[in-house]
Design brief:
CATH class of the largest domain: Alpha Beta
Order of helices and strands: EHEHEHEEHHHEEEHEHE
Strand order of the largest sheet: 1-2-3-10-4-9-8-7-6-5
Number of helices: 8
Distance between the termini: 27 Å
CATH superfamily of the largest domain: Gcn5-related N-acetyltransferase (GNAT)
CATH architecture of the largest domain: 3-Layer(aba) Sandwich
Oligomer: single chain
Largest sheet: 10 strands, mixed
Number of strands: 10
Number of domains: 2
Shape: globular
Structural class: alpha+beta
């Protein structure tokens, strides 16, 4: 029910000992949490907590700050897919080492993804550090095998968006998806989702999930439109000890 571990990726960028605390049940009191926290000696703890009134009271009493709500969606092939009115001049690319995107393009994606992120909302994390987290996240997905597959979509030979996918055992995850503003409302996001579903099907993956912030209404509506249904709701808390 309680799992805590060091996040090396966040720790390196934030230059602090960052730990993630996962609570997937209902807490009776704060004693077990306090014991875990003392054992690890964290500078920062990011807690992902099952939505429950008792859990809320415990984390508020411990001085944690509520940063965001996390919705986990599971793909349910229950809604007939609709044809998208795509513009004609687009190209879908399965990313490989012969395809590259510039740092400027990654920056463009970061500008879109960052404002809704929990890092950006945390007043104790600098905007520079939160941007660095997302830049490295995307860059590592493309160039350091962080993602198991990536699909790019181009319009008139210019990168318009991408989706990155991860595999964990027999489960598939949509990790990141982003369409640049000038290419929205063309059906490109749904196109990337469909291509991802084909990828997972070829891998014989039947469980497919995607996680997004509960307060990101447009993202939630997008996933619901593409046959994803909410599986789990968590609260995300941050606490800084330095």
């Amino acid at each position: 029910m309680i799992n805590i571990y060091k996040d090396d990726f966040d720790s390196k960028i934030l230059k602090k000992n960052v730990f993630k605390l996962l609570i997937n049940g209902t807490l009776k009191d704060n004693k077990s949490i306090l014991k875990k926290i003392k054992e690890v000696g964290a500078d920062i703890i990011f807690a992902f907590v099952k939505y429950d009134n008792r859990n809320i009271r415990v984390f508020e009493n411990l001085g944690f700050n509520l940063i965001s709500i996390r919705n986990t969606y599971e793909y349910q092939n229950t809604v007939p897919s609709k044809k998208n009115n795509l513009i004609k001049d687009y190209r879908l690319i399965s990313y490989n080492k012969n395809v590259s995107i510039s740092g400027n393009t990654i920056d463009d994606f970061v500008k879109i993804l960052l404002p809704t992120s929990r890092y950006y909302k945390d007043v104790n994390i600098s905007k520079k550090s939160s941007k660095e987290i997302y830049f490295n996240w995307i860059n590592n997905s493309f160039y350091k095998n962080y993602a198991d597959s990536i699909f790019l979509v181009e319009v008139q030979n210019k990168v318009a968006g991408f989706i990155s996918l991860k595999l964990k055992k027999s489960i598939g995850y949509i990790d990141l998806i982003c369409i640049l503003p000038k290419y929205r409302k063309m059906g490109l996001g749904s196109l990337l989702i469909k291509e991802s579903l084909k990828f997972f099907k070829n891998k014989k993956i039947k469980e497919i999930y995607v996680i997004t912030e509960g307060e990101n209404l447009s993202a939630n509506a997008f996933y619901q439109k593409n046959s994803f249904i909410i599986k789990n709701v968590e609260l995300i808390y941050h606490k800084h000890y330095y």
